[in-house]
Write a structure and sequence with these properties.
This protein has about 190 residues and is an alpha+beta fold. The protein folds into two domains: about 70 residues, lambda repressor-like DNA-binding domains (434 Repressor (Amino-terminal Domain), Orthogonal Bundle); about 100 residues, Jelly Rolls (Sandwich), CATH 2.60.120. It has five helices and nine strands. The strands form two sheets. Strands 1-2-3-9-4-7 form a six-stranded antiparallel β-sheet, with no helix packed on it. A hairpin with a 2-residue loop joins strand 5 and strand 6. This is XRE family transcriptional regulator. Keywords: DNA-binding. GO terms for molecular function: DNA binding; DNA-binding transcription factor activity.
């Protein structure tokens, strides 16, 4: 889908900025020393403002031109909502009795950028998996406590703890200290 023309995107950014600051069209026009009809045409994408006029409008909004231009580019992009009922349970190495991995998001592009999982484990697990992969991994402990192996060291990870480490070092749960644990892990792959 093609982007709208730049004058429409700039007009929308000016309007958003004005409304976010609680300004009336007349107030912004007066502060930028332009007529109300001209400002209205800019906001509606019916006319293109010159750079000096855009600079006056940006100043009246309490911002600068570079921020205004960045804003019109940031409104593109993608978003993904995966409802709880649609999250996939996935099989990873180490997925056995007592292990559940739920993939919380997935990238439809040509390569994976990141993988977020919700992981549930219990003490009935026969063994704990070890992993080694490219990129960086982040763990946020939701409930329960575990000792987590990273290379030749172990770390005590408790609810509310955040743990970040290099994925290329052999790692994985060493010992569960509670009957059940739950944590979120996000693997960010290097470019």
């Amino acid at each position: 889908m093609a982007k709208p023309p730049i004058d429409e995107r700039m007009g929308a950014a000016i309007r958003r900025g004005r409304l976010e600051r609680g300004l009336k069209l007349t107030e912004l026009a007066a502060a930028a020393s332009i007529s109300v009809p001209m400002l209205s045409r800019f906001e509606n994408g019916q006319s293109t403002a010159s750079l000096p006029l855009l600079e006056r409008i940006a100043t009246a909004l309490g911002t600068d031109l570079s921020t205004l231009f960045r804003e019109i580019e940031q409104n593109s992009g993608s978003a993904q909502l995966i409802k709880a009922s649609d999250q996939m349970e996935v099989v990873r190495s180490g997925t056995k009795h007592g292990h559940t991995y739920r993939l919380l998001s997935y990238n439809k592009g040509p390569r994976k950028i990141f993988e977020p999982f919700l992981i549930d484990m219990d003490k009935e697990s026969e063994s704990y998996p070890r992993f080694q992969h490219p990129g960086t991994e982040f763990i946020y402990m939701l409930s329960g406590r575990m000792e987590y192996r990273f290379g030749d060291r172990t770390f005590l990870v408790e609810p509310g703890d955040a743990f970040t480490f290099s994925g290329n070092v052999l790692h994985g749960p060493e010992k569960l200290l509670d009957d059940r644990i739950q944590f979120i892990t996000i693997i960010v792959y290097a470019e």
